[in-house]
Specification:
heterotrimer, B: 325 residues, flat, C: 339 residues, alpha/beta, 9-stranded mixed β-sheet, 3-stranded mixed β-sheet, 13 helices, 12 strands
Chain lengths: 282, 325, 339
Amino acid sequence: MTLRNRSRKTLSYVMLSLTGVCALVAVAILFLMLGYLVYNGWRSVDWDFFTKLPKAPGETGGGMANAIVGSFQIILLATVIGLPVGFMAGIYLAEFGGRTFAFLVRYMADLLNGVPSIVIGIFAYAVVVVPMHGNSALAGGLALAVMLIPITARSTEQFMSSVPQTLREGALALGASKWKTIATVVVPAAYRGIATGMILGVARIAGETAPLLFTSGNNAYMSSGFTQPTASLPVMIFLRATAPYEDWHRQAWAAGMVLLLLVLIANIAARLILSRGIAVQK
Amino acid sequence: MATSAAISAPPPGGARALLQRLRNGDELARLVSLAFASSILLVTVGLIYQLWITSALPRHKFGFGFLTSSLWNPVSGQFGALPFIYGTVITSTIALLIAVPLGVGAAIFLSELAPPRISSTFTFFIELLAAVPSVIFGLLAIFTLVPLMRDYVEPSLKKLLGFLPLFSGPIYGFGYLTAGTILAIMTLPFIISISREALLEVPTEQREAALALGATRWESTWQAVVPYARLGIFGSIFLGLARALGETMAVTMVIGNDPSIHASLFAPGYTIAAVIANEFSEATGDLYLQSLVGLGLVLFLLTIVINAMARLLIIATTRRGSAHP
Amino acid sequence: MKKSNLWLGVFGALAILLAVAQAKVLINAAGATFPYPIYGKWLEEFAKVYPDAQINYQSIGSGGGIRQFSAGTVDFGASDMPMTDEQIGTFKSKPLHFPTVLGGIVPTYNIPGVSQDLKFTPEALAGIYLGKIAKWNDPELQKANPGVKLPANEIVVVHRSEGSGTSFVFTDYLSKVSPEWKTKVGVNASVSWPVGLGGKGNEGVAGVVKQTPNSIGYVELIYVLQNKMTYGSLRNAAGVFLKADLESVTEAAASVAKTMPADFRVSITNAPGKKAYPIATFTYLLIPSKIDDPAKKKAIVAFVHWMLTDGQKYAASLAYAPLPKDVVAKEEKQIALIK
């Protein structure tokens, strides 16, 4: 083998091994970080974390019961508003859409998807917090709903569109109207994908912090109703992590672990649902 | 119940006819779903409108000067966007400089070299990384990355490259470089996942042709496969960039919160998203608050442009890729 | 889909139950981080005495407190710096300032190898924050601390990133002792800091200093004590180096207790007196003079009254100085102004 060929071969081995290293580094980062988080979180989480309210600064103990419930309140609001709207919009895009209007809606949905969450927070602030004269779970929920709608719409559309036309035509040929076809044939056929899209969307907004900072704010107590400032897990993590108190750091790790586990479980579950069932048989 | 013939017939006009159409379940379904779909339009238009009118004061007061002034002084009522634009661009650039080689390299490995089982397992885990919330990256960054940068990485860089203004000055741990690094970690999964898909779309003939001509494995990958997929790879880079520009929490927690422009990467700085997160709830006075909203508008426009470019590139790839059976 | 409906239902019911369960008066307050440890303690104790009210205090900084108070998004605010005439002018009826406790702002630092208390001259502190004194072993610092071996490391300066009453008091002091600071930077809640990192809240600054070697920051005394951080002494107007403590902070207010203006807005930095700590301050509750909701009014009045009597007993244990008796008497009279 000539020297040139040998050096080319060596280069090939080196570069290809480097790519392997890159892949390894990428996965290693994931495991190292999450491992560290779970390790710290595991040591920090206790029963009090889930049941007690936070204490005054400097005092040890207490927990984040209000933040856990608050997060559920805000996410509940966001899903109640966002999922139906997104779902119906997705149906429109997949089944009824005219050329230009559907294109416009799709374009806007993608646009909205790319907007940084803090800007959406500004919008929710102007539209809810200012007229209401205060922070509220409603404002936070709305901000998250605005993020959830386009995600849900596009994923619903994607999975509805992938249902083969033959199924629709078969139903229509049997005398079903269009809406009945959609409701009883197409949606059930695509339901795995739609459900996956919804779960992933909710998991995505569950971890959002930025839009909540000045919409739902924070609350030292459980927030009653949706018109009061409400604590949430991501905001608490932010506040606790940037403080000097060791006990607060401990709580930040615990909260981080809980949040991460919820998000990861939702993601893994969604992917399993999708891979388990292929949406439609050919 | 209407038959398929009735569905394909054009709907009659007029108010009475409207009611008649509504009785037709399909038309109702169409209108209802149309209403929901229009809400997306309404929200987007509303968002842009709200951003525009709530940033009127600084626009009238400073005009274009808002974008070019580097003075951010709430006391004297001077608000310039430049330090934040600078910080946003610098941290995103650092993020890409780290994430692109790493990400494209990993994508090449996962699409070309790895056996399918390993490829899909690795990809599964890397895509999970994309789902991790920003505040958790921030939490980890404060306690792991900041000390690492402060005690090991930045001093070594200073020793080696301290003659460059980029690597001079005091070392804080918090600053542009740390923020850029955590952004790189957050951008990595997007670049890997999309580039990998673009690379998988490349027809095997490309690879085989190069190998047949005597190329080494690397040469065939680098010179035949990757260029074919370059549109998708660029698309992934733009998408990663769009994500990095808007990233708030992780950056806020490690950037050092200094609204000025510094040459050194070790110095603290600020990004648009970070300053809004920190100062929005307590901006006293309308001009201050509206200047922050103005910054939000700038960020919004920036991310729209980058996202649009990313989508165009990705569409171009899939169109090309789908031409192949 | 059905299972997720079930979960939605469960949490929906929970949320609704919570909404119904609370029949309490909900009061929202926000503001200074400076007194947050004691306000947190007070609210815990007050809730035992007055269980019908739930007062939610968010420590977001004095700037935020004033802003939210002015915007009406909270029922009352808290700030270390008194509101300016301009800020007061935005109200239909003039808001009331109620001093709660006295606190001291200390220079806290984290220098590897130095565990002693350092002495800071006003020139040194101003020089550090102006960026003119860049290293710990600068002659100005070494001069005041002859017995300590200061390393040649670069000083990492930490200040507040948001509008802060603590910053206001600190810059007020620096302006009094350093003409250069006064012209170059000035006094305000949020200034254009010549150097340094920004931390969010007293908590944030303490957090950064605690984990960053060679750093210096200015925080309220209790944060330093609770986190076992090192802090230095300052030379006061009489030339004596003092550390912040109950005695020196109380002494700083002694000179103004009798001549306190009717609305309590006063600065006590760089106070005369041999035992007076130079960076001390009152911190205020900002209460509207007209509260429409009778239940909220009752609760807030009760809280202010409790704060002036029982609340003061908790101050010392958290290293805040209780209010002088004359000031308390004047404040009790001011409560009557809340309609």
